[in-house]
Each structure stands twice: as structure tokens, then as C-alpha cells.
Amino acid sequence: MAPNAKASECSGMLDEHDGKIIDGKESVGTKANKVTLVWVNIFVFAFAYLAAIIGFWLMITSAKLYTTLFAFALYLMSGWGITAGAHRLWAHRSYKAKLPLQILLVFFNTIALQDSIIVWAKDHRVHHKYSDTDADPYNAKRGFFFSHIGWLLSRKHPDVAKKGKKLDFTDLTSDPILVFQRKHYVELMILCCFVLPTTLPMYCWNESFQNAFFVAAMLRWQLFMNVTFLVNSAAHAFGNKSYDVNFTSRENSSVAVLSLGEGWHNYHHVFPWDYKTAELGNYSMNFTTAFIDFFAKIGWAYDLKSVSPHIIKARAERTGDGTHTWGWGDRDQDEVELQNAMITRQLNDQC
Questions:
Q1: Who wins on pLDDT, 46 or 22?
Q2: Cβ atoms within 10 A of the Cβ of 5, count?
Q3: Residues in domain Fatty acid desaturase (predicted)?
Q4: Sign (positive/negative) of CA torsion 98, 103, 108, 109?
Q5: pLDDT of 80 above 80
Q6: Per-domain residue ranges for the chain?
Q7: Could you give phi then psi for residue 215, rounded to 5 degrees?
Q8: ∠ CA(106), CA(12), CA(16), 5° rounding?
Q9: Nearest-angstrom CA–CA distance, 347 and 351
Q10: Is 202 in contact with 208 (CB distance < 8 Å)?
Q11: Most confident option among 234-243, 320-329, 341-350
Q12: Which of 128, 142, 165, 145 is nearest to 265 (CA)?
């Protein structure tokens, strides 16, 4: 999941070194899998992490309560811009949104500063299509550090671009709202991610510049940025494989809470078209699903896609690791079908 246009071109491995230089830039890795470090991104992230540490210190020592609450509100907004917007709506098309919700999600997404939706969704579709291979931008098999942030600190593996060209992205590149965001991304990102989060606390409740900038802008930005990274790293390293043991993705409740519902990752890789990215039993820790359901009730979200319980149960029994515990197997099949029909009817009524 990429934070800027420069970073979106980058990917690599940082845990093996041969010290060679290619085209004036340091290459690290084995002879079979060399990469080129992108020092601009390394310095940007180093500064961002330092600024976030300063922001955390200021939050607990001098920032006003309103500033902390404002930062949390921005955390939710930027989070939904990624989870409900770039991920579930545009990358997977797991539901449809009317124009007002699309505009709101583009605004939220720009606050998040994880690159334009077009670039983000392209990378994510490639990740699902070629998961755990060299064509996967954040290939979990190349280590925790690589899948968390290392892929942004070095050039992409050639297979990412080569195989990515085989996928159809015309639905993204022909969307006028997404095209507008990408065309004006730099200025919109500066305004939404840094200028507004800094100036609003200063003018609305007389917060100092340093508290507003480091807490509401930098700390908030890096917190959700790294929570997003955890979906690529921790949710591929720790947890159960309740639905398919052949994926590296796992069910991680801690990541689910922090990421507003994206940690039920084994389920998501098995059923990527489900707008919930989780089974119904995970609903209590899936704030993005609640967000989408709210807008479905007012008619802004519709055609919500989901998976019937008996299909989930059958897949878990066939390929899961035996940890599927949401209880569908203990219920009569007629009851399951009735439950599924009721769920479908309720969603349709909401639309």
C-alpha cells in the first residue's frame, strides 16, 4: 500500500547484502534477486517516523485534548478513505457508491496520503492476482520487514510491472473522479494531509503550531500508515488460516481492530469480493463494514456483495486449518439458507 507517487514505483528486499553498486545506487540482495534502494523514500520515512515520535511526546505532554480528539477523527477519516474507499470500493468493487459518497471517500483517502486511489488500487489488484510471488508488490514471502515497509524503500521487482500489464485497470483510469485526484494529487495531498490538520486546531481552539503539526498531521498520518502496513506484514505472519491454508494471509484480530476491520485477512484473500472482508461473526471488530452499512441505509451505498454462510463453511472445511469457529456447522442447513436469505433481503432493502 503506497504512500506517494515516488514510492509506488518502488519495491525490494532489504535483508541480504552484497554491497554492489548498480547505476550509482546501492543494490542489495542475492544475485538472483538484486534490488536498488531508493534513498529519497528512505529519508522521507526516517523524517516521518521521527516527526511521529515527536508528535507522540507532544500529545502526552502539551497538546490540548481537542487536538488529540481531532487527530483521532482524522485517523478514522483517513482509515475509511483507504478501507472503504481505495480497498473495498475501487480495488475490489465489492459494493457501489453514489457520487456524494465517492467524493467523500476521495477526500478521506487524500487525507491518508497513501498515493492516489488509481495507483493504490492497481498495486492491490496485482497483490491479489499474484499473491506471494515476485509479482506481488508486497510479497510476504520476502520477509516481515519487506512486506511492511521495505517494498517502499527499493525498486519494484520487474515481475510486478511485467505481470501487472496483463490486468485490466480501465475502470480506474476512466473514472473522472479518480483521474482528477491523480492529476492534482500533490496539491490535494498537501492541503488535506498537512495544511488543514495543522491550521484547523490553531484557529479553532488556539493550539500551537508544533502541537497541531506533529500531533494532528504527522503522528496521525504515520499511525494509520503503519497500521495499513500491518495488514501486509502482521496479517500475513500471525494468526489462523481458518479458510485456506494455502495463503500466507491470516486472521489477526489485533490488526482488525487497529485497521477498522481489515485484519480478517485469510477470509479476504479467499473471498475478496465480499464487502465486509470478513465473516459475519467478525462484525463487532469491523468498523468499516459498519461505515458502509450506514451509507447503505441512507442510499449512498448499494449492491453490497457478500458470501453465503454455507459456501463459507464448505470452503473452511475443505481448505481451512480447522480453526473456523463461527458455528455455521452446528446449524441445520435450512436454517442457514433462511439466515442467508434474510441477510440478502435486509441488504437489498437498505439499498
A1: 46
A2: 14
A3: 69-272
A4: positive
A5: yes
A6: 1-232, 239-351
A7: -90, -60
A8: 150
A9: 6
A10: yes
A11: 234-243
A12: 128
